[in-house]
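worker-03 picked up job from queue 'complexes'. Input manifest follows; two sequence lines, order preserved.
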Amino acid sequence: MSPTRIVITGMGAVTGFGFEWQSMWQKMLAGEHCIRPWQPEGVEASAFPLRYAAPVDMRLMPAHLQDHPAWGLSLEKRTRFGWIAATQAIADGGLSPEQLRGAAVLSASGAPAHRLQDMLLSLPDNPAQAPSWAQLMTRQAQVDPDSSLCQSNDRLARVIADGIGSEGPVINISSACAGASQAIGNAFQMIRRGEVDVAIAGGADSVLSLDTMTALYLLGAASSEQRWGTELCRPFDRHRSGLIAGEGGGFVVLETLERALARGATPYAEVLGFGSSLDAYKVTAPDPEGRGAVLAMQAALTDAGLAPRQVDLINAHGTSTPLNDAAETLAIKTLFTEREHYRRLLVTANKSQFGHLIAAAGAPEFMLTALACRDDRVTPTLNLHDADEQCDLDYCAHQAVKRKVDVALSNSFGFGGLNTSLALGKYREPSR
Amino acid sequence: MTRSNSTAVYITAASVLNAAGTECVSRDSQPQTALPLDFDTARLAHCVTAPALPAGVYDRKLSRSLEPQGARLLYCAGRLAETLRRLELPDERIALTAAIPEVDGPSSCWDAVQAIGEQPADLLAQFFAHTPPLHALMMLNSSVMAHAAEALHCKGPMGGFCSQGNAGLDALMEAAAHLSEGRADAAVVVSSSPNITPALYLRDVTHPPVNPGPWIFGEGAAALLLSTGPAKGAQSALRIAGFARGYSAQPERGVAVGRDVIERALSNEKLCLSDVGQVVADGQDPQIAALFTSAGHALEHSKALVGDLGTSALLTEIAATWALDSSPYTLLLEHSRGGHWGAVLLARALLDRETMESYP
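worker-03 finished. Artifact:
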């Protein structure tokens, strides 16, 4: 029996570029970015060390989305972005409610960060006393109902499922920055093993708040560089200094090819394999040898039945942090070493254009990889003017590249060494 | 179940932590007394003190940067370390999956909150000065997976799940799939219940649960070790024989979805409900009770003993089945507050001497 083929038939994305994938794709091919000056609410910009981010621009929201039910419920911002992205993906895929009754919904959302404004409610009237949960409980009516303190972390998966009336598996993923990729990979595996025949998978996140950005800054993960302005996200560059946070969400519709063709859908690309691994190294840093990344990419290729030499493109995790980019480059050179295939590969880093969407990052990056397979065009890595000597691959610097892409990998590596890699291929019609 | 489950998957070790202690206890034991919460004395819960991590497994400094739910999870994971080590597997062949609470611990640092309260005009400086450098990693509660992986040398496939009471099933299914589909030879499955804080209750103010309770929560954790062969020297083996999951937020559809989930979990063994000797489920849940009105099963569960453990409830029940039960088939059923349904079928078989000696 030939293996079940699984294809992507719908996509939806909310990023700093807008509220649909089409504008994201066009703007990114044109070499644009959506990183701009940012400051946390209630804090003077000059007082906060992180000055840039890639926020979603609400002015770009099209009129038809202004009536989306996400705006009428008490929800976190990230949940709204994710629900809208999922709705867009379902509409893009042309799926009816009847076709979604048994669909699996898999979403990733980052860890909930309780807002400082809410936590200050825990302060007693007597300043000599310590803050306490008990004090917070007495003031619960003052807690912002849209805040994470009033939400379960799996809210996004359930609002999507409720919106489409799905009775299939509803799964929330928690694997840090690898979350959305794990959601898509798990959806692929669930379809392949016959648990469901269609899935809505992706993720959404927003860390653009005083609390979470402070935490990222203190961890040393986010860049506080001032000299590059909006060009400070520079994956693989000698002067890279940390991630630039973005926000948004992305969802895809995955289904069996048989089902897609039966309902007249046109696949964007085919999902070929999924691999994951753990660094088991340090919670604060990736394995500098990139061994976990090698294992994840190798697992994806093995799952897909592919050899490394067949890969044309790697959509890198490419965070612009000193540690990740060097380790990921080394991992690529290790795995694609036969006949120095790494010299023929294209590598791109989407975070230079829309920032790091944290738990959601893997979803729009997966879509852009699928579109590269469809259109044979690869989005550029921006701001790579002076390549790090440890980073010596073809990163598609500055401008989009037109080259045949039959097989590609999309990498996502989470804090703490949680690694995923998804293998995609150009969609080819089944032989008769 | 799935089409590709060619390799059998067994539970080979388990560990638990909850109000009843650190050993599995029979579900008909004397119930523990739920106590009033210090932040809301009208509410009762089964709280536990965060445990010291097992010696020799983790970095000694780790416990300083752990929130309680992470500490519970790592405590249970650490207790599997020795059994896992004896399997002598390459690190790359050991998978790790986790069921992570859908409600996080206190992410804002109390010291910072207090400092800001004392000097509100200097908010940012106080916030920076009193927030620990690794605070982001405490907030990213999947960081417990990194700690567990490092300590137990798990470099194989991974997955973190956060789907309320069904997260344990998600983690179990993912781990079992890694083994049955050949990506790993052993898997550590870990789980922790949410910390009992106001966040656990505040979410119900804006979003009342689909499955309304009553709920007396408990704190706890559970971890399982899965492998492709029974434990060395075991007299019997507990095999994962089937599982299925579904969801409904519509009360009028819940029973139908629950029934479908049960049927799919039993289908791999070609069983019907009357073939199952033991059912572990909360009969106080009216939708679950409706599923068993005619089958004649006496439903049993551990909630009365330890409270609703949420994310770690299913693995706690599986651990108890592994340690204490002897029925040839046990069906475990979960119905989460959010409307998730999950079922696991476990099969116990006595092992003959030849089988016992054939595994390392």
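worker-03 released lock.
DSSP finds twelve helices and 14 strands in chain A.
The CA atoms of residues 273 and 305 of chain A lie 8 Å apart.
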